[in-house]
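Section 3.1 - Work completed
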Amino acid sequence: QLQASGGGLVQAGGSLRLSCVASGGTFRRYAMGWFRQAPGKEREFVAHISWSGDKRLYADSVKGRFTISRDNAKNTVHLQMNSLEPEDTAVYFCTGGGTSALRPDYWGQGTQVTVSS
């Protein structure tokens, strides 16, 4: 199971840190990631981190503003989001496993992020 938290309402230019705790599996063996879905839009990839934490991928729209990290000792993955924009408003989903960053095996419930202008 993947349990995401940390969403909320923030003004443009502000920051939020999302967290996702994994349970019921061997967390440290899995790559982890984040996707998001805005109202009326398709779900889209945001960020991905390898099982060891040494490889990271970001969507162009968040590169330089968001940072994904993981703590295997705590079975947790984080998404630090800085310089937030209204366009970042979406439900954010934690993901795990899979053969590629765009095809995760596991999905958590979403956490709402709302950025006001």
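Second construct:
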Amino acid sequence: QVQLVESGGGLVQAGGSLRLSCAASGRPFSRYAMAWFRQAPGKEREFVAAISWSRGTTRYTDSVKGRFTISKDNAKNTMYLQMNSLKPEDTAVYFCANDPYGNHNYNIWGQGTQVTVSS
């Protein structure tokens, strides 16, 4: 069984920072890339950022470019999302997900971690 477990969420004031972690455990699994998504109340889940596991190539949604940084530690089997200059509109549940073949079909999801940014 493969598990992705997010941590690091919390309550922060606007302009503050948080660092999310996504730790993978269990049997070895195919992993081309991993990504962060988020879902705000009453809204659809949206893509935030992704990183290719071998090359470390990154991509971001426009609203977080320059503020968020996605990274990984292969040795720790962990992905991170450093979030700076947080805004109230960043408030959401953040999920990490695995893309096994690079076609954006995510097959493993974490349970999510709440991020709340107060104004």
